[in-house]
Structures are given as C-alpha cells and as structure tokens.
Amino acid sequence: MTRRNDWYRSGLEHIWLPYAQMKTLPDPVSAVATRGCLLTLEDGRTLVDGVGSWWTSVHGYNHPVLLAAAHAQLDAMPHVMLGGLAHEQAYRLATRLAETTPGSLSKVFFTESGSVAVEVAMKIAVQYALNLHGERRTRFVSFTGGYHGDTFATMSVCDPEEGMHRLFSGVVPEQYVIDLPDNEARIDALESLLAERGDIAAVMVEPLIQGAGGMRMHTPGVLQALREACDRHGVLLIFDEIFTGFGRTGQMFAADRAGVTPDIMCLGKALTGGVTPLAATIASADVYAAFHTDAPEHALMHGPTFTGHAVGCAVANAGLDLFESEPRLDEARALEQALLADLSPLADRPSVGDVRVCGAVAAVEFETEFDVEAARAWFISRGTFIRPLGRVVYLTPAYTIPREALTALTSAIGDFCDGVGSL
Ligand SMILES: Cc1ncc(COP(=O)(O)O)c(C=O)c1O
Fold first, then answer.
1. Known catalytic residues?
2. Which of 64, 130, 161, 353 lies deepest, with the highest CB count within 10 Å?
3. Ligand 1, atom nearest to 151 Cα
C-alpha cells in the first residue's frame, strides 16, 4: 500500500463529507493536480471538469495571475484582522467591487463563505428597518427552487419542500416561500403578501438562475416585477449572486443582464476564481445610510475572524484584473452559443424533458429519475467530471475551456441520454 493510500483509507474513516450519506457513498476518486479545465487523478487519469469546483474556477485552474497574487500576499502578510487594522487588499477590493457592481451598491462587507454573506444580508435587512423606523421586520420572502446556503437563517429561505433542508422545516425561522412571480396570478400573490404583511424585511432571490435547485432559469421580467413590487411596498430586494456573479450569465452580474439593481447583493464562489474562500455582501448607499448615524446601536455588529482575508482579497483583486485584461466575459458569452449548439438538439431525445442554457450554464433535465451516483461514475469512465443534481445534468465549466474539451463534455451528455435508462 502506498503512502497516499494510507492517508486516503485512514482519512475516510474520519472525514465527514458534504451532502453525503457516509454509509453508502461510493469512495470518491482522489485528485492530485489541476490545470485549466482538467483534473488529474491519483491513478494518472485526466478528467475534463464540467463543474469547476462548485462553480468557482471561472478563469480555469492554476491561472498564473491568481497564483502569483496569492504567493506575493502570502510572502508579505498572509492576513491581519480588520478590527483596528487596515490592509491594502481588502480596501482596494471594496473600492473595486463598489465600482463594478451596478447602481449605488457600494458598501462592502467581507465574509468567508456564501452562506455567511447571505446571513449578513439578512441581518442588514432586519436591522435596516429597526434603525430606520424602529420596526421589527423579521421575515423574508423567498422562492420555491431557491437555495441560499446551509446555515440556520439561510436554510430558512431555501425551498422548504424540494430543497435539501426539508428536515429543518419547523426548526428554522418560518419564512414566506412562494413560487416565482412569472405570471400575473403569481405577481398578484406577491403583491398581496407584501401589502398584507408588515413583518417582511426583504425579498431574496437568485437572479436569472436558481443553481442548486436544478439550474432553473427565469426571465429578466421576473426580476423587474420583483423590483417594482418591492419599491411599491418599501421592502428591500436582495440578489444572491453567489452563483451568478462574475460572468456566469454572460454579463458581470445577473443584475446587469436583467437590467435590475437590488438593494443588497451577495457574492462569493468565483470572486476568487476558486483559489481561496471569500464572499461579500454589498449594500446600496441608501441601506448603508440607516447604519451610518451617531447612534452606536445602529452599527452592524458582525465580524468574522477572517473578514477581508488578505490572501483572498489579493486573489480577488487579481481576478478582477483578469476580467479587464482577458476576454473573460466574451468567453462566457461564446460558451452560451457553443452550449446551445451542442445541447439544444438533445431536446428531441425521448429521455430528455428540457434543455436550458444561460451564459456559461447549461442544464439537461431528464424525464425520469436515475441513480445519480451511477451517473457520476459513468461520466468519470468517459473522462469527464459531471455531477447531476437530481434529474438535471448540468455544465458550469471554466469560461476558458477549449472547444475540444467542451465537446468532450457535451458529447458525453449526448451519449448519456441514450444510456440513462439503464442507470
Ligand atoms: C446561490 C447560492 N447562495 C449561497 C450559497 C452558499 O455558499 P457557500 O457554499 O459558499 O456557503 C451557494 C452555494 O452553492 C449558492 O449557490
């Protein structure tokens, strides 16, 4: 047995893996190296990565500009806390995010994970009403199919029935979870909810694409309807762009593609191109004004140990440089065309219910259930790393993926359509 097998076998006895029934989970394959859109496995095989490490590695793995930024910051100063100390990378990143996000979104709070960025957005929304009018608005409107994280407050705004946190219904705070208002009846339902309930702090949505809920897509018109309803009823609108941010929809933010600006935006994942954890909650100037007073109790009392982590912020600044110096958004838009060309024809296959594409995201939804673990193993046997979400096989590759590698992914999905019945 090699040393590596030692760590694997003893580690598997102790590690508690994400979203997994450890008793039945097939043994994961081990990765030893990454480059571009490729994963190298311990046994020497190379897989084309269709997922991008939970949707983060938009520039491709090991981009030299990101790695150089991380190394330089590590050598100079890995991190110092933002309580009482300032450092250049966090301050520069805050300025750049304020400049890059739309409208008056301009006040940036850093966290280390998307879930916590959403928690902070929820906390800001509740405290905004308290600071401004002394009102206790403690509840949120969110949408079926939505996913916003795994912490307690964020679980409460996930889909309570189809989502993965069903078990916690009745344990987490109760929210108003409704269907997205994509027709008149649903807009009316949202309108009456906002009109009748005085306890709503904000409406929370993943704009344009509900990711973990199965890559469900909606039109910009839905977001415009949300914006108008929130404005009419004096309720804040939060865009959770943790998945959609940084080019995933073909524009820097889904807010840009939709032409709708929220009051608070949450960012994470691709913020550092998948190199380090970092997330951000960005509030509009108006929201911030309710905190920026002479009253000490109006302050936002939040401060994770690693807020504004220096290495993370250095990498995120380098990532923003790449959006300027390399044609990243053009690549994401070109991916939309390539994905449409390769995958739209699959809609005619008998096993396929729906094919949808938006920017650098494609989803093929199957008519029937299949064994997801068997499907994952089948894709690996085809030299690809693709992890279906329920009945949805999706691609969220790096925007830099070469055409041949993309073809390897899409043709594997094409073949999967024929074989899905046997899984
Ligand atoms: C839209 C959205 N919000 C929040 C999160 C939670 O982010 P994290 O896993 O970094 O806590 C995710 C993660 O997939 C997400 O897709």
1. 19, 147, 240, 269
2. 130
3. 11
